[in-house]
Design a protein that fits this description.
Layout lengths: L3 H17 L22 E9 L6 E8 L5 E10 L2 E13 L2 E6 L2 E11 L5 E6 L10 E6 L2 E9 L2 E9 L5 E6 L10 E11 L15 H8 L10 E9 L5 E12 L5 E7 L6 E11 L11
Antiparallel strand pairs: 1-2, 1-16, 2-3, 3-4, 4-5, 5-6, 6-7, 7-8, 8-9, 9-10, 10-11, 11-12, 12-13, 13-14, 14-15, 15-16
Length: 296
Amino acid sequence: MKKRLPLVSVLACTLFILFSCQKVNSVNDDGLLDKKKNKKDLCLISSFGYSNPSVPSQTIFTNHYDFTGRTLQVEAGVFSGGAIVKNTVFNVEWSPAGLAFTNATSHADTILFATFDRKGRIDKIVPGNKPDFEFLPTAFEYTGNRLSGMRITLAGVDNVSYFNYDGKGNLTLINDLPTTSVPIPGKVEYQYASNQKASNQLYFDEPRKFSWNSFSLLQYIGLFPELQPVNLRTSTKVNWGNNYQAYNMNIANHQLDQQGKLVSYDVVSPGSSSTISHYNINWSCNNELVQNVGNQ
């Protein structure tokens, strides 16, 4: 790990210089529009939240976009111990090199960078000039056009997870590799309705480890579209390792709008029809995407 830290520092400094010396958020930057197409039917998630008897209202994330569909600002739910403990607001600055997530109240404070590989996919996340310990360095691997691996560096240890999909393109398993402290690795399992689909959908009901915050942040702004299911998700199981099951819930009462987008769903206990939590997804389409954000 002693050999890796200088490399991360050099990379972070280099990216800081690159982002500081070029205009960001330019809608004319070639190569970036492939990530967010300016189509007549472009619809993106503006907010995602949930409620239950104990939590009247909890925002998981909100997005503000430019007219090409790129996020300019995101209010990101920060996980710890499986639950969202606070929300942090980032400005998102786009460049051919990648993305800079800056403090919304202090533009000079860059929390982290996300860089692109040669194919325009997210390659890695590294700390900025004002790093936040809740957002860890994370690297990503791909097989074809799908995310297939994730490596999170925590206290000098690499925590590796692999992503598996079924024949229809649904994410079915995120499987951790064992570590010294967690010899029996954790995993997240998803199941789906084989004959029910949605045109657009997203799920964020499972508890997440704080080490996944950087990964979750990229999901909030839609940079892993391959993780969006084809079929409606019906259950989620989360095992954090060493045989500790953190979550085992069914998903029911999916509500779709006229365009087939998922707008709400409920989480229920297996064997029960009683709702534990209700999730809402709000979408912005076409001209609704443009919103004024600070001085950007």
